[in-house]
Amino acid sequence: MNPNSSHLFLEADHLTVQYQTAESYLPALNRISFRLDRGENLGIIGESGSGKTTLAMALMGLIVPPHKVFGRVLVAGQELLALAEEEKKKLRWKTIAMVFQNSLDVLNPVMKVGTQIVEPLKEAENLSEREASGEAGRLLELVGLEKYWKDAYPHQLSGGMRQRVLLAMALSCSPRLLILDEPASSLDAVAKKNLFETVRRLQDKLGFSLLVISHDLSTMKDLTDKLMVLYSGEIMERGLTREMVEEPAHTYTRGLINSSVQAFPYKDLWGIPGEAQPGSAGCAFAGRCTQASAECTEKKPSLRQVSANREVACHRGGIVDLLKATDISKSYRVQNRTIAAVSGVSMRVRHGETLALVGKSGSGKSTLAHILAGFLRPDQGEVVFNDRAVKNNWPACVEGGIQLVLQDPFSSLSHRFTVEDALLEPLVVNKIGTAEERRARIKAALKDVQLPADDSFLKRHCSSLSGGQRQRVAIARALVMKPKLLLADEITSMLDVSTQANLLRLLKGLQNSSGFAMVFISHDLQLARKIAERVIVLHHGRIAEEGSTSYVTEQSCCCHTRELMEAGL
Amino acid sequence: MGVSIASIKQSIFRVLEYALAFLVIISLNFALPRMMPGDPFLHLSGEVDEVLTFYSQKQVQYFREYYGLDRPIHEQFLTYLKELAVGDLGFSYYYKEKVSTIILDRLPWTVFLVVSAMALSLILGIALGSYSAWRRNQWQDQVLYTVLIVFSEIPAFLVGLALLIGLAAGLGWFPLAGAATPFAGYSSVWEKIVDILHHAALPILTLTLARTGGIYLLVRNSLGTVLTKDYMVTARAKGLKEFRIRYLHALRNALMPLFTRVAIQLGALLGGAILAENVFSYPGLGLLMRSAVVVRDYPLIQGIFLVLAVGVMAANMLADLAYKYIDPRTRPAAGLKPGAALPLPAGGEKGDA
Question: Which terminus of chain B faces fewer neighbouring Cβ atoms within 10 Å, N or C?
């Protein structure tokens, strides 16, 4: 047996729940296996409809026919699903209790809250009215409410007080596992903080295990040590909360974090596009994933260990490193002196992410970008794109490769070209598609960058376009190659602020819908924290700092970063 | 805090509403009998109870003057109001007795029918309705639903006639008429009670059958809704005993709409009782009313109408008042112990001391 089995409190093994609908069974949970030790705090995060609440209901044995439950749930040594209803009743609340999601209806509207708090205890231990009433008062004080609230009716409580009453109610039989279902919903920030403090204080005192169900990242950070990501009734990733928030391994987890204000207080929020499609043969997330391959739509991935504390259900082993650069150095010779533009830079770009490369002018950003795209050969080091070494500029010549958009749209697009010429050029040079396909593709690209796609615009000369329009044509030109990585080198620096704002939103929107990764090169750290998840700060050709945007912009102690921050403010 | 100005205003408004309704009722009460074709003293001469009296033109004239029917209508109305104000319901033309005495004599029988039928249909309706709701969409529910819908759609008097013909006339299990065996010398109180119940059985059964369907439907739907509420999941998760879940959490909430419904339906039930009394010749207010209408006994008709209307109104008013205490959400400032006022409104977070 497992040496830790003495700590084991709850174990679910291939737990499956199917809801009966009019014509078929709808899978709500699909072969979930996990364990929870005594005193452990486990979080289950996922969008609504991912099966979180179903899981809680299943653990309490509350999924009743005609709905179906399969698998095994071991609670404190008892096989829950095999128990008779009467036996389950004995387990409920006494062993596992739940703080239900706060709603006006969650408490019986015509019964005093004190009565509702103690009724399970009163039944279990045959308390007298007096004892029960005293117990209700004690429980209310335990969660930080005055005793007299026991005589109130649910409608007389505020949302925060109701949440506390629900907590008091859940604690009435001193359960060994407490399930919190969306404990933070409907609470303001202060009430939330107070509640979490109360929960932690009570956990120290009473020693229950905690299972937290929420879509809210900050709840997880505050209350849990371990985290499980649920999507479409399947576990996508699990590991330690702290590590997962800093570096998600699954594209879905990253999507959740990117949608969260707490993780990115300054960045524009982008939800995960698309809707869950349950019941597919392949990976449930494949339709919304940026790195899905053929295998992903055909076969379900199972959870695999990817590092010491992390498991991911992904055929590609989690978020793939799209580009990896190792120990890149490049120097220029100016007259007799050697100037190191880039020295010893190692970095990676993960699938679908936005990485900001920030530094003062002359810090080697553009040189590095050109090396990454294969336009410049480094003196030393190697760049690998999609598991293939970057030599010459092959990634720029293929679909799904690397495209570079440059700072100056006036010189990057030949002014003699018409818009059509400029956009067709990469397709013609690389012999992609028939004439008709090419036309369709450039029109789509123009539409994507919100430019007119009619003939009169196509026939215009690039020289007649404004700076903003030219830069958008340049982006469209990159997009017709359907890149997996877009290197955007100071693309907004020559534009006015309004055009810059529009262009950035456009680019993020395109990234969110087509899922390419982006290296955003800029001297502006403020701008970087608006759009990027990760930041690399370059100084004199070396990496001065690297980390998640919130870390770099808020907790950095690197002097170069601080200098850039202050300069921008 | 006590009572706020708004709630006083509301109460005054309520009282005025009821007063207005009462005024309309007594006016209609006065007008309706007089709008009927015919004349009390022509009718004194025919039909009903084999009293065959013929009045000459002169006698009719005399009676009209005697009872004040020759005076202008507004004067009659004023007299009616004045007498009503001192509780005088008038004097029956036909029975030559005080209207209040006659009504008091008959009222208990009607009350007996109505109360028994109400109680029985409530018991049946709640029991069957809850059973159906617990077994929603299973065959038991579907059978019950169909049967009770059919019953509630058959008019009460048809059911009554069928029972009368089948069980009383045909099989002879029940008496054909009356509330008790005439001139029976009972040897014990028990025997008297049995006799009375025997006579009342069919009218009560008729009324119960007519009423149960509505209550059944209401309970079934209301409980059906309650069962989907979050607090039912809460109750179940708490591992409470089945009895507690079903009755204290579910049924208690489901029965609240029934309370108002029953009060409102009292009017309809009284109407049903009047029909049933006539079918079974049961000597309550309904039968009395028929006789009074036939002979155009204005004071008696007015009296009966008044008693019925006031009864229904009082029931509604009581329901109005009582509902506030049944549902804590509508209860005016439910008493929390420290002062009557609610200690603090939304967002009242206590620090964790």
Answer: C
Spell out a b/e string for A134-143, using b for 16 or more CB atoms within 10 Å of the CB, else e: bbbbebbebb
Distance CA B132, CA B223 (A): 9
Of A92, A149, A197, the CB nearest to B239: A92
In a domain, B231, yes or no: yes
Is B85 among the domain residues?
no
Place of tokens 């039928």: B117
B229: distance to nearest CA of chain A, Å?
7
Q: What is the pLDDT of residues A500-553, one digit of tens each?
A: 888 888 888 888 878 889 999 988 888 888 888 889 998 888 998 888 887 787
User: According to the 3-state scheme, what is the secondary structure of A381-416?
Assistant: EEEEECCEECCCCHHHHCCCCEEEECCCHHHHCCCC
State which residues form the domain around B204: 99-326
Scanning A94-153 for CB atoms below 8 A from B yields: 94, 97-98, 100, 103, 105-111, 119-120, 123-124, 144-146, 148-149, 151-153
What CATH number is given to the structural domain containing B300? Answer: 1.10.3720.10
What ipTM was predicted for this assembly?
0.71
Residues B342, B347, B348: CA angle, nearest 5 degrees: 55
A440 CB-near residues (< 8 Å, 6+ apart): none
Closest among A394, A350, A388, A393 to A517, alpha carbons compared: A350
**Alpha helices by DSSP H, A207-264:** 217-223, 241-246, 251-258
Instruction: Fill in the amino acid letter for B35.
Output: M
Residues of B in contact with A198 (CB under 8 A): 352
CB atoms < 10 A from the CB of B310, how many? Answer: 13
How far is it, in rounded angstroms, from Cα A541 to Cα B83? 110
Q: pLDDT (tens digit, 9 = 90+) per residue, B87-127?
A: 777 778 778 788 888 888 888 888 898 999 999 999 999 99
Q: What is the pLDDT of residues B166-179, one digit of tens each?
A: 887 777 777 777 77
What lies within 8 Å, CB to CB, of A170 at 6+ separation is A93, A97, A98, A99, A178
Instruction: Please state, in angstroms and rounded to a whole number, the distance separating the CA atoms of residues B197 and B191.
Output: 10
Contact A97, A170 (CB under 8 A): yes
Provide the domain count of chain B: 1
Q: Which two tokens stand for residue A377?
A: 């050969």
| Structural domains of chain A in order of their starting residue, each with its CATH number | 36-64+80-95+175-313 (3.40.50.300), 321-414+482-568 (3.40.50.300)
Tell me the nearest-neighbour CA distance from A67 into chain B, angstroms. 15
Assigned domain for B86 exists: no
